[in-house]
Amino acid sequence: MDFGAIAVKLAVGLIGLWAATRILGKKEISQLTPFDFISALIMSEIIGNAIYERKYTILHVLFALVFWTLLSYIFEKLTQHVKRARVPLDGAPDLIVKEGRIDYEKLRRNKLDADQLRMMLRQKDVFSVRDVAYAWFELNGSLSVLKKPAYDTAQKQDLGHSEEHVQFPHLLIEEGSINDDNIRGIGKTKEWLREELSRNGHPDPSRVLYAEWTEDGELHVAAIRTSDD
User: Fold this and answer.
1) Superfamily for the 93-164 domain
2) What is the 3-state secondary structure (H, E, C) of 72-132?
């Protein structure tokens, strides 16, 4: 293919992408929704395929960019101005932790597990689910966390309270399965765990979806199985 034709197509593609970005609006990578990500991939495919294919002319490149930009623009306006279409088209954030309790149905619906949730909480400087008042799983895949006031270190310092010893949580049960390594790591046994669960009203460990223990001796059950599913 003539290098001049490739250069012209690249220039047209660059100008077209710039114009599309100006029309659709600029967003940070962390703010991209799944639709934004798919849209970016499709636009890059349009430009990439058109550059090296002889049968695609500059007019084909322009038509594909303009038409896809128009479709994306209509989609964005629908989600912004038609409230009834917003949730079906764009989705909605999910409240997956409320007052230290995990909603496992929503966790699974978003294809998350306990380890992934714990990682996302640590990225928000939260190391125990019991410290969480509310946690939303956002449309862009991030986690927004509101801590309980009692566990907000900044507020404690503002009130003049002395700093407390840091308590590191250990996950003991996930999805009804007891973590033997973590129990041995804290110097406890399965029998102790079963006794603690019974004392807290959960005699059957297989029905516990999430339970953690902290060094202050507190066992926190954040989710239990409510059905046989």
Assistant:
1) bsu07140 like domains (3.30.240.20)
2) HHHHHHHHHHCHHHHHHHHCCCEEEEECCEECHHHHHHCCCCHHHHHHHHHCCCCCCHHHE
